[in-house]
Amino acid sequence: MDGEKVVSIEDRIPKLREARRKKSNRRLIFYICLFFSLISIVVYLQSPLSYVNQIHVSGNQYLSEAAIITESELSETVNVWSFKTAKIEEKLEAVSEIKSATVERVFPNNIEIAIEEYRNIAYINEGEFFQPILENGTILDSLKITDYQGDAPLLYQFTDDEYLTLFVEQLANLSESITEHISEVYWTPTESNPFLLELYMTDGFNVIVSIRQFSSQMPSYPSIVSQLEVTNGTIEMGSGGAIFYNNEKDDQDEQESEEERQEDVNEDESEG
User: Fold this and answer.
1) All domains of the chain in start order, with CATH
2) Is the pTM of this model over 0.90?
3) Number of Cα atoms under 13 Å in the Cβ half of residue 35
């Protein structure tokens, strides 16, 4: 027995030895690929390819693309991987016109910025032009609108910023299905009620309502109008309900009174 030659398992089973060789080769290939991948990453991070090349902006209406890029503080001198996108989004959302922002990297070196601006809910009358007011109360002083498209109510005679701010807060809480019926809004304060408003509606009616009750009272407007058999008039809204004044009847009564006065004058002249 001692003289017998010992044969290893590998010699007796060549397929096992071949399998181990292939496994070693795969491991070697893996480490080589990993090495070159790390080298490529290092070279990429040190090359101009890792710096911002293009910035694409979408969703902007009031702010220019250049203004948004400036606010983001991104430029061609910034490495694509040197910043957190969440921080850039915070910077953009601090801008008064921007409601939300999303920043994404697009390999190898581009940036996509998608923003959502606050909704335009009214225009303030500035004489020869109108300035948009956003739902957060921001007045876009840089925009001077002369071609009114009827996409939001026009505001007149708001000479006190405090009452304008209160009204914009109320208007922002109103659904678009209601605001689209409002054509013009006048601030008409009195000594007894400095919150008074007069609204001119697109369907021919006028509404008198308080700023403080505006968002709670106006949702009932379509229901009130649907019960009326006339095409214009004045609706006065308050905590006690709504009161309707028929302008057509008032105009008719005034015309009849004027005709009666004219008849009296003619009679006096004929008697004279």
Assistant:
1) 51-117 (3.10.20.310), 120-249 (3.40.50.10960)
2) no
3) 6
Q: Give the pair of three-digit tokens for residue 157.
A: 């005679």
What residues contact 212, with CB distance under 8 A and at least 6 apart?
166, 170, 195
pLDDT tens digit at each of 272 positions of the chain: 455 555 555 555 666 666 677 777 777 777 777 776 777 666 666 667 788 999 999 999 999 999 999 999 999 999 998 899 999 999 999 999 999 999 999 988 999 999 999 999 999 999 899 999 999 999 999 889 998 888 999 999 999 999 999 999 999 999 999 999 999 999 999 999 999 999 999 999 999 999 999 999 999 999 999 998 888 899 999 888 899 988 665 555 455 455 555 544 444 445 55
Question: What are the residues whose beta carbons fall under 8 Å from the beta carbon of 98, sequence distance 6 or more?
Answer: 63, 68, 92, 115, 116, 117, 118
